[in-house]
Amino acid sequence: MKKLFTLSALGLTILLAGCSQNKATSSSEESATSAQSQIQAKEGTITYLGQDYTLKFPTTKIVTASFESMEDAAALSVEPLGGVTVGGEMPDYLKGKLGDKMVNIGDKFGPNVEAVAALQPDLILGSTKFDKDVTNNLSKIAPTINVSHKSDDWTNNLSLMGTVSGKDELAKKLITDYQNDLESFKKDKSDLADKKILIVRIREGELCIYGPDFYYNPMLYKDLGFQIPSEVSAIKGQTTISKEQLAKIDTDIILVQFMPSENKSFPNALNDLKEDAIWNSIPAVSSKQVFYNIVDGGYQGGTYLSKEVMLKALNENKIG
Prior knowledge:
globular; alpha/beta; 14 strands; 13 helices; five-stranded parallel beta sheet
């Protein structure tokens, strides 16, 4: 894939377009951290997904206002000044992975502007899920880049975090590592390529499924080569589905993800589903090819961290 750097007359311009061959040394994280501490931030321009942003980088003064950026920070051992939560709580899977000084800046759908401003960041990494008002308010505090929530953008997202934090070589290494792990999985489990798979997420007590470009679906259907049910192909984004509708989808394997903080009013939703007669009549369920929380229900699905965890889980479970 492409190399990332070009220089302009006014400063450093970086084009984030993917990854290049791995040049990271075996010391990886510790070396990157040491090198980072010796780098002085300079004002320059970053181009991310076709848009230019002027900011000082590399920097340690980063606020991660989206879970996509928080997962990338965790993957690169970046310790943000602040991060978002779900229902006021940090998801278990991220606890202890973002340093012990990170400040809670509020809910993932609308960070507290005053809390963010108090941290005096050099950069805010938001979300493409933000509305214009949220983005405008954050941009008044510091340069704000809304990180894509589309899974296909995961390499650009990880490269962005690598560049702004001074860990671009480690980001390249992780991208290469995933691609190598992916090829090993496909070689070892080539019989899975003919299987249809469906991932379901329970949110606010409802069953949700996703279109081909969201959540774990690009990994399942593009990276791993599972067959995609025709009903999934027609979905744009996320949609809710009844058990009756879901029972009509022809699939060999079902993955179910549930996180308590997303179902506070429906704490028994997962157990209720397991006891439901319609659910248990689905062939994939009755043949025990349904897997509950194969990974922590909080993972965003379209990040390096999410993908590596899922790949490991698929390897360890008797899928198919």
